[in-house]
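Hi P.,

Sorry for the delay on this. The queue was packed all week, but I finally got your sequence through. Input first:
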Amino acid sequence: VVMSRSHVVVIDVASRSIVLEYPLTLDADIEIDPSAAVLSPDDRYVMIAIDGNADLYKLDLDVVSIDMEALDGIPSDLANDTVTGKTVVTYHNRSQVDVIVEHDFIARESISLDEPATDIVLGDGLAVLFNSEETYTHDIIKLDLETMDVTEFVTENPVHELALSPNGHYVVATLRPQTDEDFGGFDGYQASRWGLAVADLNTDDVV
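Then the structure:
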């Protein structure tokens, strides 16, 4: 799926051919900027988040039509887990994550978080969430997509980037400075510098 202003293009990677090009609006005076898109587990639907818009666009590739689902806020990221067949939705300024469990008519389960999470990294049957936008959010969230259980890890500084280990047991996060000023002591030194954190997903330990 390739996104451009007011258009979505679906490409067959094997044949390198365009399968479908679909306009997101028929009004030439309206600009719609897609911010994220994923295919549903059965490859029938393209789920599209729109920049600055709380609606989730659902493009049906079989009948070539588009529907909209009103979300609770403006989505920041989308990710589809092929193991559980579920789609994860995070928000810019909302302490909530949604899990779409049925794509034909958009049935979703909402889970409250302590802090907003804007980014998603998927493992096998799990989603790891973090916030790459805010300065004072320190949470790494493990969401088990089978049980919907949530485990929270708290880092010393905000998370800049995050990756899963190849076996899916650990999260390695680059931490960005929380402040430009060193206000003294070890805490001040740490808060004003880049760092690294490793979270053991089988426990609640962060080092």
